[in-house]
User: Which sequence fits this backbone?
């Protein structure tokens, strides 16, 4: 009888221990909001990418189109992006360049017919190429500039929603909700809110697979407050061994 009672006590202790440790183990394997965003990409996560894209801008004042070349060089230490208009020819002076580093520092410049201008943090909401995409939208997500929280918005399985409240001065939204495919890191949507009003939305409409990895094919940015929208179609994706560093030199703008 003593042996049976001792065995039952041991079994009960082991059962209680498993009930304590199993949830803890499951919890530790769940990625944090920061970890999810660190692996999130809008235009692709290869080390060196060259994109050709068509940007169709629609507004009550009329429609217009631009052809873009976008160069991306990225690793764990830095992300460098150059976007430039190649058509129509009279807009070929329009360029955007960003350098972002793992320590949180970054530099951003825009070039227009008036010359090159370095952007202050408060100007990251500036529209690019007269579209609904801003400087912040086409930069790599910097999770250090937000207070982050994983939230439940009823998204489909495999998509995580992250609420991001900016901690820097200047944005014209109070918070936004990133929608991310956890398995691929693809940014499938972003909802921008001003207080509780939805004022802007990014949506990934179609995707393509290059070298076994997903890339956007068609996406849109809608500004409900302005009544405008921009459709971005990725016409060509080239994965390169390297991209000349001179392209990302501020002096080459």
Assistant:
């Amino acid at each position: 009888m003593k042996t049976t009672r001792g065995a039952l006590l041991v079994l009960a202790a082991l059962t209680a221990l498993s009930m304590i440790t199993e949830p803890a183990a499951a919890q530790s394997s769940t990625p944090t909001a920061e970890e999810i965003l660190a692996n999130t990409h809008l235009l692709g996560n290869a080390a060196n990418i060259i994109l050709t894209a068509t940007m169709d801008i629609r507004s009550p004042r009329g429609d217009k189109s631009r052809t873009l070349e976008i160069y991306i060089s990225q690793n764990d230490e830095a992300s460098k992006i150059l976007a430039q208009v190649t058509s129509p020819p009279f807009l070929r002076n329009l360029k955007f360049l960003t350098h972002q580093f793992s320590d949180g520092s970054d530099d951003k410049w825009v070039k227009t017919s008036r010359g090159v201008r370095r952007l202050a943090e408060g100007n990251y909401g500036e529209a690019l190429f007269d579209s609904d995409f801003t400087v912040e939208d086409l930069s790599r997500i910097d999770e250090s500039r937000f207070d982050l929280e994983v939230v439940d918005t009823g998204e489909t399985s495999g998509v995580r929603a992250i609420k991001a409240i900016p901690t820097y001065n200047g944005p014209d939204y109070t918070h936004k909700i990133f929608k991310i495919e956890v398995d691929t890191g693809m940014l499938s949507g972003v909802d921008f809110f001003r207080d509780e009003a939805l004022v802007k939305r990014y949506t990934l409409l179609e995707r393509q697979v290059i070298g076994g990895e997903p890339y956007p094919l068609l996406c849109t940015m809608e500004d409900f407050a302005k009544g405008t929208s921009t459709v971005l179609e990725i016409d060509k994706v080239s994965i390169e061994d390297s991209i000349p560093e001179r392209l990302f030199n501020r002096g080459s703008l």
Remarks:
- Residues 22 and 28 are 10 Å apart (CA to CA).
- The radius of gyration is 23 Å.
